[in-house]
Design goal:
single chain, 303 residues, alpha/beta, two-stranded parallel ribbon, 8 helices, 13 strands, 39% helix, globular
Amino acid sequence: MKVGITGGQGFIGGHVAAELVKRGHEPIIFDRRGTPDFLGDVTNLAHVHELAAHVDGVIHLAAVLGTQETALHPRPAAETNIFGALNLIDAALANRVPVVNICVGNHWMLNTYSTTKTCAERLFAQFRKEAGLAVNQVRVVNAYGPRQSVAKPYGSAKVRKIIPSFACRALAGDPIEVYGSGDQVSDCVHVTDVARVLVKALERAADGHVFDATVEVGPTEHLTVLEVAKAVQLIAQGHTGRMAPIVHLPMRPGEEPGARVVADTSTLTLVGEDPADFVTLADGLRGVVAWFAANEGVTWSRP
């Protein structure tokens, strides 16, 4: 299949493209950044129709991300996450192409990012039910892995993600910042496992297997944020010879103390996946910390 990837220049998009090639498909990158195959914006209906007219399926990743970053400025997230989804629904129905939509693990939280992404998830479900849209939806907890961008002061990313933040701070010897007590659970899943599930979900949709349920991607082992921070702290010590401290900050707006963001991994049987085969968090963290250690000065820098 020739597969369009909206937001294909992003972290997950790059790994999805690699997985598509691995499975014999041709990725078509659709993004408003860089020099992709289709330079376009999901908020532009004509652009999205042009993409849908030239591919056999679409994996929809394009979104405005960020919990605290979008809390008080919701309009860009609403325009991209909601109206971008509506544009893809329109184009997919008109061109009769299957779609996979990525959803957020914390879909029940009251913050701009979760609210807009969950609105999109419900719109896709509505048009699957009422209009026969061939869409499978994949709900992902925190994806992490090599090549993930880093927020200030270590990199140029606008959105702060848990594992890059922990890894770069620990390697730099700076305090590892944990929001709240750290007893909240925000599960992490390796991006290669996420990419494989997304591609298999599209293959199922293209074969006529459209699921009523949302496929949820995450580990079976649940660690608190503080436990993850301590794991990164120890791994980084092996690279630097020193132990970075851990400090606690107030909870971010839109998040809840003690929350549990986990996946119902029983849904993975829909795409023939077993979470026991996923990259373990221990192995994944060792790999990603080693990657950041090897790429200091290239993808991130000490402030």
